[in-house]
Structure formats: C-alpha cells, structure tokens
Amino acid sequence: MSDEKKSTGALNPNASSFSFNPNASGFKPSFAPPPPNMPPPPRATFAPQPVSIGATPPPPAQSAPQPVSIGATPPPPAKSAPQPVSIGAAPPAPAPSAPKPVDLSQPMAAVNISDNANEPEEEIDENDPLWKVTLQLAGGDRAAALKLLEDPDALMSRPEVVAVLGSGDLEVTEGGDSWEEAAAPAAAATPEAAAEEAKSPPPAPAGDGDEEKLDPAEEARLAAEEAAAEMANAIEADPRQHLNIVFIGHVDAGKSTLSGQILYCTDFVDRRTIEKYEREAKERNRESWFLAFIMDTNEEERQKGKTVEVGRAHFESENKRYTILDAPGHKSYVPNMISGAAQADVGILVISARKGEFETGFEKGGQTREHALLAKTLGVIKLIVVINKMDDPTVEWDQGRFEECVTKLRPFLRTCGYAVKRDVLFIPISGLTGANIKDEVGADVCPWWRPMVEAGDALTSQATLLGALDSLDVDSHRDPAAPFVMSVLDRYHERGTIVLGKVDQGTVSAGQRVLVMPTRQRAEVQGVWINDDPVMGAKPGENVKLKMNVGMDEVHKGFVLTDAQRPVVHAVTSFVVQLALVETLPERPLWTAGYPCMLHSHTVEVECVCTELICVVDKKTGKKRRLPHATKGSMLECRLEVEQSICVETFKRLPSLGRFTLRDSGKEQGITIGIGKILKIDLPKKK
C-alpha cells in the first residue's frame, strides 16, 4: 500500500484513525503476522480513553496514548508519545511534542487523544453499511456503537455483521506506516484458505499496465493446458475447398474497390458499414473510394488513396471458402505484393479500361506486366483477368475496348508462362456498381457479353466473377498425403508462441511433432486454428494459426515447418538455378559472377550473390554455352549463394519452395531482374 494513499474505509485496529467506505468492493478481516523479532502492536481503542483516578498507571507502551493518573508523578514520556496528565503535582517542563495539560473543567468527551492534538477527529461516514448495522445493534446509542467497533472479534460473531461483510460492500485499506503494508493482501476469511494462501508463492511484481510475469516453464505449462482445453472443443475443418485470392495490377486499377464490393455482395459487410465509409470518403474528397476503405484500413492508405500493406479478408460461397489478399499496386511496395502473391492459389489481375489508364499500367514502367510475371513465378495456378471500370464515361461498356485489352494481354501472359487457353479467364466488370461480380450485367447495358460467354470467346463459361471463382479447381495441385510443409508468414505471442502460415502440403493437427527449419529445432503443435476457430486438423491450402511450444526467438518469417518423422526440407547456403533474366540496371547491364540482388522465395527475403555463371541456354535449340556474362532476355544457369542458411528445395521435388524472384533494390523503387526455379541444392558436407 502506498504511503500516499489516504485511509478510505479501513477497519485497522492499529491505524491512527479510521473511516468507513460504503462503496468498497469487499471486506475480509485479516491479521497478518508481524515480521520476525517484532512484538505485536498494542491494542488500539477507537473512543476517548477513560481517566484513571488515584491509581498508578502501568508503564506505557511505546507510541500508545497513556491513561490520565491523579496524584502520581508520571514516568518520563516515550519518544513522540502523548504524555499522561498528572493532577495535584507540578507537571514537568513540556517537551516540544508533548500535549498540553488537560483542563478537567471540560467534559471528558472533549478530550482529543490522537497522534496530533491539533488534528480534528475524523468523522464517521453515516452511510457506511457497517456503521449502520453497528448502530442498529446498539439500539441507536452512538457511544455504545463506538464501543462495539472496538472489538472486531465480537462484531464478527453477530450474524447481521457477517451478512453485511458477505455482501461485498466493504474494503480493507491501511493508513500510515506499519509492517502490515509490506505484508500480503488480506487473507481469506477461513483458516483453511489462509493456510492454503500461505503455501502459495507470492506473485512476481508487475509494471504499470503489464501482465503478471510468469516463469518460462510455468508459462509453457499454462499455454499447453490452455491449448488442450481449446482443442477439446475443436471441430472438423470445413470440407469446402479453400482458395487464397490475390488482387494484383497497376496502382488505381480498382483492386481495393473490387475487394470491398465482393465483401458487400456476399453479405460480409452490412449496409450500415458501407454508409459509414461513404461519409468518411466524402469528408476526404474521395467519394468513389468508399468501398476501398473496407480493405484499406490504416490512415496512410486512406489519406493517400493507395494500398500499402497486403489487406486480408474472408468470404464464402455455397461451394468454396475464400481469403482475399489485396496487394499494393504501387511499384514502391512490390516486396509487399510478393509477400501476398506467395500465399495465393488464384490471381485476379485487375485492368482499368478507362482511356489512358490501361496504357499507363501495361506499357513499360507500369505494374501490370511486373505483377503478372511475379504472380506466375510465385505459384499462382489460375489467373482471372477482370477488365474493370467498364462503366466509365470514356468506355460505356464498349465491346471494342474490352477486346482491345484482351488482345494485348494474351501474348504477354504467354511469355510469363501462363497456359492462356487453360488457366486464364477474361471478364468485363464494374467494381463500383457491382456489375458482373455477383449478378450479370443487364442486356440493356451490355448486349454483347452474354453471346460472347455462350460462344466461349472470353475463354470462360461463367458470366460473373464469383461464378468463375466457384468453377475453378485447384485440388489437383495439392497432396494431403505428402509430408507436412508450411512456410512461416509471421508469429506473435499469446500465452505461448502462435505461428501463422499456409499449409503447402500434407496435413497438420494438434499433438504433431515438427521440425523448425533451418535451425532443426524440435517442437510440438499444441493447437490448430482456422479463422480463429479451433479445428482438429488442416489440409493443404489452409491458412492456419499453430500454437507451438517454442520461444518467439526460435521461429521467424521465412522459416519452414516440416514433419519431424518425415522431414523433407533442407537448410542450404548455395544452390543452382535456372534464371530468366528479364531486366538489368542501366549502370549494371551485364549479369556476371559477383552480381548482388535480393532473393524472394516463398516467405523468405534475403540478400544473395551470383557466385558462378554456369552457362547461357539458347531458347530455340536448348543448347548450352559457356559465356562470361549474360544480357537482358537471356535464359541461363548459375549458382546463387546466401550468407546464412535458408530453406529451399528443387522445383521438381517441392514447387512451393523451388520458385524464386530476384530483385535489384539499387534504384529508389527497385526492379525485378529475373524469375526462375531451383535445379539443385548444395547440401552441406557431413563432418
């Protein structure tokens, strides 16, 4: 108890004064033992002390008020204690701290016996429940009530008092300096509870607003118990197929607006929320951006009108479950876009049909090309190209504009590695009005779209975006029977370490033993969650949270979890790759040994260097030539090296860990240098 805290309702027999607090939360009488070698304090009284006539007083206790003696010489006063009053004898010279002699012509009730004679007697709170019941027991006699308060043990024997104490209206507080302030809080009312509490270790001190600090072993035990309790209520995971969708494309193409419209169309955002965002967008002079506010949640994104981080949201259809990954379109945030695309199964490439905007995004320097290229190399299986803003006054659902965009995009997507006829769909939409997202655009607005769908000219049999998503099948690329592998996307602490990621292959369940790579730390999965729901297990393609018995410093983004019984992941520092060189810096136009860059693979991002240019491959004949350098547009094989071990595998063995992108951050905003796959990993030599 702080020295500065004023007594506010303490019933403390050792306190210099007391008051009653009717608003206190609870009261439990407690008499904690004093420290060793310290005598117990004398019993204090809560009423004026009686005057003793003609009797010799006993030696006074230190710091206690002394009774008044008539006809006797008082003993020397104790330090700082009130001195006894002597009648009929000359009083000694008064000490500075001694009280003045008592005037016996005044009634005895007027005598103020306290630590400070000049301090007024503290008033009793007439509304205090304990005072009320005590006064009632005394028949309204205040003096008798005060007398009752002098004996807490006697009070506790009265059922009326016990009833008041049990109602939780009183609180014990300490006033002044005493050894009790350093003691434990009030003990339980029963001796058994007090004895049990005495056995318990005192809690560790916590800072202001901090959680109580626990011993690491104790915290691990509690985390395991908590996970086990939650897993007891675990359910079977939803059997519907789950897809991660990443929205990619040039800045201002309408990705966030489209994401918000999908959530609204599927009833995952209500009308009241939409109206709130409409007001906020109007206040910022961005009336048409209100749907984007659903995904762009931070202040910087709303102020600038552009996505910075990868937004994440969920929606469902009758057949599938979806997670939206809204990637930033600005070239300054390409690394963030890569982080989102690395988790995706399906890419939605958003193209603006507005005059001038398509050309800006698709021509050299725009992000349409780079995003499409990155999505393919990062593992996007299917691509839906939506030609957005078809309702714009410069377009007005013009069929010619739609076909112009499609004609320019098809050959480019082939060069990125997409099988256009099999894996790419084209759909005209309006993200702002919702046309062709859930409901097909009316024939009066767009008479040419339905005949085109029926003829298959747009490479789709589905007229709407949600219909096209439901028609996709990616399960053929997933293997639930394979050894478990999951790239770590993030981790945080919540009664243990929580690890986030997407299951690449295999399954994971509570109790499963795993290896944390590249450190080879063994760990146990204590719980599995999908969308914050505890589940018995998770299949490939699921975004999961795993509670694990490892420390926060033992797992990081870019690490990989694999089955401890069937480990399939290696930790290496060098590997041989096949690289398609798509761009080089003007100041560094040749790719040679010693070329440094940034490597992006699954969730890892690390600096690397080319240590050997093995050969340049002729794209037409496949013939390999040994050359000292390569230029933009070349296909080559080289060896890359990193300083510390990372988890990668050959593309043939584990595609999710065998793809990569190389970027050069030498320029202010960086460029993509090349994309490729890993052909061979250089395993460390056994000692």
TrEMBL record:
Compositional bias of kind Pro residues: 31-43
Pfam families: GTP-eEF1A_C, GTP_EFTU, GTP_EFTU_D2
One GO cellular component term: chloroplast
UniProt keyword annotations, A-Z: Cytoplasm, GTP-binding, Nucleotide-binding
Sequence ranges of Low complexity compositional bias: 12-30, 182-193
UniProt domain Tr-type G: residue ranges: 240-477
Ranges of compositional bias, category Acidic residues: 118-128
UniProt GO molecular function: GTP binding; GTPase activity
Localisation: Cytoplasm; Plastid, Chloroplast
Family: Belongs to the TRAFAC class translation factor GTPase superfamily. Classic translation factor GTPase family. EF-Tu/EF-1A subfamily.
Name of the protein in its database record: Tr-type G domain-containing protein
The organism of origin for this protein: Heterosigma akashiwo (Chromophytic alga)
